[in-house]
């Protein structure tokens, strides 16, 4: 059971767990093997007070509510990989993408024997940990950015069975509790407020997280 990767707030679970999710069908062929590391991945996009992911335009990273948001450890574990070398993109402008830069600046956190959490598209210079560090649930790991294969600030998060962003298989995960506010397509015009516990959330759902308790 995982804690939220953010210290509260309202977030869209973009392309989250669903049969028609783009992540569900992202297949990587590497060195003669097929991998589906993104099978249950999520693109977390923060929703602001205006009910949108952006304010005052879309041309600057600072216009996105999630830009610079602290990204937290979802469980206790060990940092196994840190990459902090890619510039943050200009929103809506996608640079050439390769297998080497697809995740942008990222962290991998081992939370069990064969269970790893990848945090991708982090802000350059905003990573707070190093490989080998032991972290606790709720510790700040990095700042949300816009690096790698992305056209707007968000956090790509996935849980896998191996210590690799791409050469691994996706694993489903649950959060202990959150409030389900409804589908992203209906928000904020039609809004629910349903507490869910020990649950996998729907894809493209809007969720509300409470502040993390240490």
Please supply descriptive tags for the structure shown above.
single chain, mainly beta, Glucose Permease (Domain IIA), 10-stranded antiparallel sheet, 0% helix
Characterise the protein shown here.
The protein is an all-beta fold and about 210 residues long. It has one domain (about 10-210): Glucose Permease (Domain IIA), CATH 2.70.70.10. Helix content is about 0%, strand content about 35%. It has no helices and 14 strands. It has strands at about 10-15, 30, 35, 40-45, 70, 75-85, 105-110, 115-120, 135, 140-145, 155-160, 175-185, 195-200, 205-210. The chain has a 10-stranded antiparallel beta sheet with strand order 9-6-7-8-11-4-1-14-12-13, with no helix packed on it. A two-stranded antiparallel ribbon has the order 2-3. β7 (about 105-110) and β8 form a beta hairpin. About 45% of the residues are buried.
How confident overall, as mean pLDDT? 96
CA-atom Rg in angstroms: 16 Å
- Please give the domain count: 1
How many individual β-strands?
Answer: 14
H/E topology pattern: EEEEEEEEEEEEEE
Provide the structure class. Answer: mainly beta
Main pleated sheet: 10 strands, antiparallel
Number of H- or I-type helical stretches: 0
The poorly predicted ranges are none
What order do the strands of the largest sheet run in, or round the barrel if closed?
A: 9-6-7-8-11-4-1-14-12-13
How far apart the termini lie comes to: 15 Å
Helix content: under 10%
CATH-assigned fold name: Glucose Permease (Domain IIA)
The CATH architecture classification is Distorted Sandwich
> What would you call the shape?
globular
Give the strand content: 35-45%
